[in-house]
Design a protein that fits this description.
Elements: H1 8-16, E1 26-28, E2 44-45, E3 51-52, E4 56-58, H2 67-75, E5 79-82, H3 88-101, E6 105-106, H4 118-128, E7 135-138, E8 144-148, H5 150-154, H6 164-167, H7 180-190, E9 194-198, E10 204-209, H8 210-217, E11 235-238, H9 242-253, E12 258-262, H10 269-281, E13 286-292, H11 295-304, E14 308-311, H12 321-325, H13 331-341, E15 349-352, H14 358-366, E16 371-374, E17 389-391, E18 394-400, H15 405-410, H16 412-417, E19 434-438, H17 443-461, H18 466-472, E20 475-477, H19 480-486
Parallel strand pairs: 4-5, 4-16, 5-11, 11-12, 12-13, 13-14, 14-15, 15-16
Antiparallel strand pairs: 1-20, 2-3, 6-10, 7-8, 9-10, 17-18, 18-19
Helix pairs in contact: 2-3, 3-9, 7-8, 11-13, 14-17
């Protein structure tokens, strides 16, 4: 028998009237509380084995999440999903970049040869956008022979002519230990920021980096979202076509923590086939699939073996799917129906789309979601892909749906996500739009406001953690006048607040 929650009666009443609700149709009821906002616990899960310190995930859109956003999200306790509009090699490189960002022991460091031109290594560093300047130097047998650092490059007076052998240090400190504590003590005692680890034959096994080992040892990474190896957790979106099967191999090889099977209609045969393939061939990598908006769809995906589901068909600010196709389930009702259908399965629900304010996150979780996926609210930040542009004196960044005409023309993955094969504008049926969004600055500041609003809502309802919020959340259906009353009104003008724009 399905566990009953306080909010079920509200949603059942709407369903009996063949009525479904979105975020602007309802508000949470307040209740007696002994909980202060700073006392609430926000830990949750994106999938069975991928945890979250905060229940926020960045959307796999080409104007939202690449490595820079994924790193910032994981360091804030959330999760970033690298979009699939990139080639398989480039997407895998983005995963590797996240994994190398915070890794006390790097088992596959970028190595160079003694006969490489200094200029060539510098060019590679720029092209690959490496955030580091130290490289182990190995011979053809992978034996460690030296190291070059940022200082070596800085004082190289003729990089076009000089080779790495001319500037590298050959007396670098090495160890045969892979114990974190021992490595920390060795580096601290000898004032070394890079510690190569070699085997008995002198072959390089990996390197320790001082910045990351210090952060871990001093517990400064306690709020980060880390896996068991101490690396930042990251996900990758994949499709359901033949070349996506090869893509999964490259992503798994780079250490991706979760695959997100990313389609507009997740309740389909190709999605189920891909889920089964992934669970068979990569049993140590979680699989989240979507998008869906019906309870029966959620059940089918759970039977197929998913570790998480993604709910939302058409609620996003840049999505026109509901208008173009005539389908759609208003988002809050869709969240509740999908979550209720799979209660007790251990499969988390991700609410994807339609969230405009921090209070919508509280509502989504109260309706049954375990986490939310954001696009619009994180787009336009420093960490989002794309350059800042200026128009009419305002700083903006481009933001587009993956079903927009531009996204479909630019990459095959977007066309496939919506089941289309055309390659020209007259042979495509867009299900999204392109636009611009106000530049917002650092994503950490946005997340601070969103988390603050969620904590406040939990304090009003008396919930000390997300599971309790799901259990006790109850709702009012509100009229248009009631929602207007909820917003600032009767003012000559309203100055934007850091957590409110209209």
């Amino acid at each position: 028998m399905t566990e009953q929650r306080k909010g079920d009666a509200f949603f059942n009443a709407q369903r009996e009237r063949f009525f479904a609700v979105g975020f602007d149709d309802l508000r949470l009821r307040t209740d007696y509380s002994e909980i202060l906002p700073e006392e609430v616990v926000l830990q949750s899960k994106f999938s069975r084995n991928v945890g979250l310190q905060i229940p926020i995930v960045s959307s796999p859109m080409d104007t939202v999440t690449e490595a820079k956003m994924a790193i910032a999200m994981a360091m804030a306790g959330g999760l970033g999903i690298i979009h699939k509009g990139l080639s398989a090699d480039r997407q895998a490189a983005q995963i590797a970049k996240v994994k190398h960002c915070l890794n006390a022991f790097i088992s596959d460091p970028i190595c160079i040869s003694a006969d490489n031109k200094v200029a060539d290594v510098l060019r590679m560093k720029e092209e690959k956008d490496y955030g580091f300047s130290s490289f182990p130097v190995v011979n053809n047998d992978n034996k460690f022979i030296g190291i070059v650092t940022g200082n070596d490059f800085e004082f190289c007076h003729n990089p076009k002519e000089m080779i790495i052998a001319d500037i590298m240090s050959t007396n670098a400190l090495v160890t045969d230990s892979t114990d974190l504590n021992q490595a920390y003590q060795i580096m601290r005692k000898n004032h070394k920021k890079i510690l190569p680890v070699v085997d008995d034959g002198g072959r390089l096994l990996g390197i320790y980096t001082w910045t990351d080992i210090k952060r871990i040892m001093s517990n400064n990474a306690s709020g980060f979202n880390l896996d068991s190896a101490g690396t930042l957790i990251v996900g990758a979106a994949i499709g359901v076509h033949e070349d996506d099967y090869e893509r999964t191999h490259l992503l798994a090889d780079k250490g991706v923590n979760v695959f997100v099977v990313d389609t507009a209609h997740g309740d389909s045969l190709k999605v189920i086939k891909m889920v089964r393939y992934l669970k068979k061939h990569y049993p140590d990598v979680d699989v989240v699939a979507g998008n869906i908006s019906e309870g029966e769809s959620a059940k089918r995906l759970v039977v197929a073996g998913v570790d998480g589901i993604r709910v939302g068909q058409g609620p996003g600010s840049i999505c026109t799917t509901r208008i173009v196709s005539g389908i759609g389930h208003p988002q809050v009702s869709a969240i509740h129906e999908c979550a209720k259908a799979i209660r007790g399965s251990g499969v988390p629900v991700c609410a994807d789309g339609g969230i405009k304010y921090s209070g919508d996150i509280t509502i989504a979780i109260g309706a049954g979601a375990d986490n939310v996926m954001l696009g619009n609210l994180l787009a336009g930040t420093t960490e989002a892909p794309g350059e800042v542009i200026f128009r009419d004196g305002k700083a903006l960044k481009l933001y587009r749906g993956m079903g927009s005409l531009g996204a479909m023309l630019d990459n095959k993955a977007s066309r496939e996500r919506y089941g289309q094969t055309g390659k020209t504008s007259d042979k495509l049926v867009p299900e999204g739009v392109e636009g611009a969004i106000q530049f917002k600055g650092e994503v950490a500041n946005i997340l601070f406001q969103l988390i603050g609003g969620l904590k406040s809502g939990m304090g009003y309802t008396g919930a000390n953690d997300l599971a309790t919020l799901q259990q006790i959340a109850n709702f009012y259906l509100v009229s248009v006048a009631g929602m207007q009353e909820s917003h600032p009104h009767d003012l000559y003008f309203v100055k934007d607040a850091p957590n409110y724009r209209r």
